[in-house]
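Ticket #4471: structure export looks truncated?
Reporter: QA, pipeline team
Priority: medium

Steps to reproduce: submit the single chain below to the structure queue and open the exported record.
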Amino acid sequence: MAPNFKRLAASLSCFAVMAMTSSCIGVHLILGAAQHTKNKMPASGIGELQEQTGHPSRADFIRHWGNPYRKDSVDGSERWLYRSRYRRWRGLVVWAIVPLPLVIPAGRYKSTVVFSGDSTVSITGQVDREYGAGFFWSDAVGPRWMIGPSPLAKRPNP
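Actual output as written to the record:
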C-alpha cells in the first residue's frame, strides 16, 4: 500500500494554517532567574513591592512579608532572606497551538533585604530570564512575531 502524499501534504497544510491563525507556533526558553536590586517598599506578598516613600524598616517587612526564612549578620549589617511560595522553572516550552512544557522545577523565588540599624540598605530579588522565537497571538496586541527576550520576563518575581 503506497502512501498518499497528496493527502499528507493537504493535512500538513491544514495544520500549518490552523496553527498560524488560531494560536501560537514557536519556542520559549526559560533559563532561570537573574538577580536585580530594587528600591521600593514591601507590598502584600513576599517579593511584591510598591513605590517607595522612604526607607522601609524591619517592621514594614515583618508586617507585609512576615518573618524571614533566614537571618544572617554580614559586616555589621543584617541580611534577611525571604522565600516565595511560587516556583521557578527551567526548560523549554514548545508552542504548536497549545504549549508543550518541557520544564523542571528550579527552586523558589527569593528576595534578600539588607538592613543597617533599622533602615533598609538594599533589596535584591529575582527576575526570570526568558527568550522566545515564533508567531504568537495575544488578545491584547493581536498577532505578532517575536524573537528575543520574552515580554513575560519583565514581570517581577511573585
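Status: closed, not a bug. The export was complete when the record was re-opened. Leaving a note from the reviewer for reference: Residues 131 and 148 are 5 Å apart (CA to CA).
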